Amino acid sequence: MSTPETSRYVRLHVELVLEITDPQELTEAALTRIATDDSMPDEERTHARLAVREDEAEALAYLVEPSELVGDVPGLELVQGSWSSEQIDYDPGTVEWDMDEDDLTDGDNEGVDAGETGRSGGL
Questions:
Q1: Among residues 38, 41, 36, 63, which one has the least CA distance to residue 52?
Q2: Cα–chain center distance at 52
Q3: pTM of the predicted model, to two decimals?
Q4: Measured distance CA(115)–CA(104) in Å, rounded
Q5: Residue 68, SS3 per DSSP
Q6: What is the rounded distance in angstroms from the CA atom of residue 32 to the CA atom of residue 48?
């Protein structure tokens, strides 16, 4: 239902926990992405190469594109996207990581702040 009081903008929160199974492969993929990004200035490219060699979370941030998540969804346009990644301690047996029924069905979940490392910007 669309009324003048209803915003047409929706914030979608997504949280993923990923296991890095091959840090070398991840770093190489990020370095390739950086090398082939024609829109990246040389100064930023140098900084990005150093960052992804030191931190797998940085490498991941250069490879994840939120626009690909919703790029082909009819009836919407991605206005802005941001993403970040950080290394975390993960223990699937703890209550902190236990997904209950509300986590799987509640569309209003805020999620956890994604952290300090990453890229963001308008798309």
A1: 63
A2: 15
A3: 0.64
A4: 22
A5: helix
A6: 11
